[in-house]
Amino acid sequence: MSSEDLEQTDTEARFEFKKEENSAFQSEKGLTEETIRVISEDKDEPEWMLQRRLRALRAFQEMPMPTDWPGQPDLSEVDVDEIVPYIRPDIEARGGAENWEDLPDEIQDTFDKLGIPEAEKNALSGVGAQYESEIVYQNMQEQWEEKGVIFCDMDEAVQEHEEIVREHFMTKAVPPTDNKFAALHGAIWSGGSFVYIPEGVTVNMPVQAYFRMNSEGMGQFEHTLIIAEEGAEVHYIEGCSAPKYSEFNLHSGGVEVFVGEDAHVQYSTVQNWSKNTYNLNTKRAIAEEGGRMEWVSGSMGSKATMLYPSTILKGRGSSDNHITIAFAGDGQDIDTGAKVYHNAPETKSTIESKSVAKDGGRTNYRGLVHMADGAHDSSTAVECDALMFDNDSTSDTMPYMEINESSVDVAHEATVGKIGDEDVFYLQSRGLDDDDAKQMIVSGFIEPITEELPIEYAVELNRLVELEMEGSLG
Hints:
By secondary structure, the protein is an alpha/beta fold. It is built from 13 helices and 25 strands.
């Protein structure tokens, strides 16, 4: 076996392994008020958080399942009554161990295989690791703690930073009434990350959280809350994976980002959910005057994904940038895109969407750009490029523009096509075989996203693409 074959086999093994379930507490299947109260009691939450959960539950029960979007993924298999919403792993330290060695052997082994400890040593300011429903490990370099940076799990933040969490948690960016799955998330959220960057502080190494679903038929509902005060900067990286089972799993996370005046937040995601997972997230940022938000997203797995990171450009001169790559293979429906609300003058946004479909997979760009009345001298540019391998695959583009201001610049461009025989032939004439030629074409196609990631993650993303092209994952 060649070194390249060994490398790809190792990458595949990192994501496809499974561990026996070993939990300290597990809720019953389904979503009831009793389940919500049990989860809140197990976490020893304050009364206000319990009440927010119960309000979200009522909103979820009142909303119909989304079915009327043209071309949306089939969600008929998603039955919340068959999902275990909360599993607390068997660890002694609630809120996450401070030392890697304090974790149970099976959890250490899981994240060792995913490369998390090594990444922490080499490329990260801080790292959090979530296993099932709770953070099991959390660490932040001392130099950033001394500057007032807070990086902890959300359950700890509710207890230790109650005032700021109560002000921001699902009140401004993602209210539970936003959509049915936001309401579901608000009712049974567990784990996730809390990141607070004080005024004027630049965290010049990425902060990462990794979310792992191990159990069959469970749901993961982590919540991420990032607050960057005036002039602050941070790059947050999120990684996700799960082994494949016969039963469906559900991931419905929530992300809220608050970008202060002249602050800069980059939120990068590399997702490799197994192909029995429904990935239904809600992510939104609010940018104040001069604030800059960047979303970098790679959706490589799941049976179906509906994911549209959005930004509200609230302050004059704020900006938003989206770079997304979606890959759909056999049996996958990856419905992704972006939303931008230009609510102030002189705001700017760019959306660059790349998608690859093969073996009958489907990709779809679904986006919204809203120019509010009074958002004069604002601009947006949307570019959607789709690449297909065969006649059985499909790719759609569904941009939606709401223009309520005349003094703005709006541009949209879309291209779609198959890998050309002449391109493959040219590379073959330079000594590459058919598979390597196609992989090189795809690697060049997705280069805009890999350029925005630290080198370790860019390499990982390219490896995942190669495995997806071979049909080796999920």
